[in-house]
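Input sequence (245 aa), recorded before submission:
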Amino acid sequence: MGQKSSIWNPWHGCHKLSEGYRHCYVYRSDSKYGKDSSVVTKTEKFDLPLQQKKNKTYKIPSGNLVYTCFTSDFLVEDADEWRQEAWAMIRERQDLHFLFITKRIDRLHKCLPPDWGNGYDHVTICCTMENQDRVDYRLPIYKAAPIKHKIIICEPLLSAIDFRGELGAWVEQIVAGGESGKEARVCNYDWVLDIRRQCMEEHISFWFKQTGAYLLKEGHEYKIARQFQHSQARKAGINFEAEKS
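Predicted structure, token format:
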């Protein structure tokens, strides 16, 4: 997606759910300010999609890609009372494209708006699968879910992953990346390459988003400074753009 982007965090805070979130970046960031990330709170930007400037135009311009709920999880239980209002704003702004990432895909059926049907055309729901255990649990649920646009997020990538022949046209892209932070676990480049191979075999786009702080490549462990983790991943030159049918 090459369009301009905006960020909308209607609520903040979450609960660590699986191994990939042991060193969650939100917890890491909040700890600097003595903030408890496990307390989920509605933010001042809750109604941002509908907020207007003095000239009556929307603060989020038409056509933008809106990264949604990136300091929480859109499907977190604590936000159940606010979510239908959030869905209403999403429904109203069909001139935008909303994207959120969830590790709670098993709650999706409880959290959808009444008119969801097979999904909204302007919403992408990404599902995280950081290791084989989470693939085995989340992939069948995600594959069967009524979502128009699906992206699998293998970040932080913590193990080799075999999608067991379950990939196909139902998923648009797979994103892989290592873990950042002082306590980051090692990402093996072979794991990344194997996911890429599986994507290419199934004609699915692949994006190596970042190396992480520690990358094991050809038997050597590289420590990579935070500011270079995205650029080094780009320099690998392994991203793959599948042709659209």
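Checked by second reader. The mean pLDDT is 95.
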